[in-house]
Write a structure and sequence with these properties.
The chain has a single domain, classed as Pnp Oxidase, Chain A (Roll). A hairpin with a 5-residue loop joins strand 6 and strand 7. The longest helix has 16 residues. About 20% of the residues have low confidence. Strands 1, 2, 5, 6, 7, 8 and 9 form a 7-stranded antiparallel sheet that branches. The chain has a two-stranded antiparallel ribbon with strand order 3-4. The termini are far apart. The relative contact order is 0.19. It is 16% helix and 33% strand. The protein is extended and about 70 Å long. It has 199 residues and is α+β, with helices and mostly antiparallel strands.
Length: 199
């Protein structure tokens, strides 16, 4: 008898952003990925244009979260963009869908993400709804990657080399910074990136 496999439900998920704590959101709209179609035809071709792939385009990641002291970090992330500090603002991120037991079930990773828009909550004294703020995050590519379940991956991470390509990005589920990133090294690397601009 073939084992039954049910699809995962969408009600449990977390977001992890490089350098920020893991955050829970009330809503997360994952983006679309499309490739523009370029039509081309030569005179000797059949009377139908060829369909060639053009630029890859990625929609934004839209996040909604209830206003708390902890959500202040998201507003501060947006402030970095307004101040022109894009070296600090660009971060890798991951959205992790959890199964019924709270374990990671599906993972989408985002490269060079930064918040392009922040919407403050709508306040109304005549309602008792939760105050919700909204963040629109743009990025330079995303992909769904396999959820790692083995324990033999740790020695290949954090080798001090260049940033891995998108499919290799791997962020754990839980509090704190993404895997392979520690706060002292993060601050040192960013300070080094900003030094040439000051001279």
């Amino acid at each position: 008898m073939v084992a039954r496999t049910d699809p995962y439900r969408q009600l449990r998920f977390v977001l992890e952003i490089e350098g920020l704590v893991t955050a829970g959101f009330s809503r997360c709209d994952l983006p679309s990925a499309t490739s523009a179609v370029v039509e081309y035809r030569e005179g000797a071709d059949q009377p139908t244009p060829r369909k060639l792939p053009g630029l890859n385009e990625y929609g934004p990641l839209v996040l909604e979260v209830g206003v708390t002291d902890r959500s202040l970090e998201l507003s501060e992330w947006r402030t970095l963009v307004e101040q022109g500090k894009m070296t600090e603002a660009r971060r890798d991120a991951a959205v992790v869908l959890l199964d019924a037991t709270g374990n990671p079930a599906a993972r989408w990773v985002f490269r060079e993400a930064w918040p392009s828009r922040y919407d403050a909550p709508r306040l109304d004294a005549m309602t008792s709804e939760v105050a919700v703020e909204r963040l629109v995050v743009v990025h330079e590519g995303f992909a769904r990657v396999a959820v790692e379940t083995g324990d033999d991956e740790d020695d290949t991470e954090s080798d001090g080399g260049s940033t891995p390509s998108l499919p290799d990005l791997d962020f754990p589920v839980g509090e704190g910074l993404p895997q392979g990133i520690d706060e002292p090294r993060l601050k040192t690397s960013r300070a080094g990136d900003e030094e040439p601009d000051e001279t």
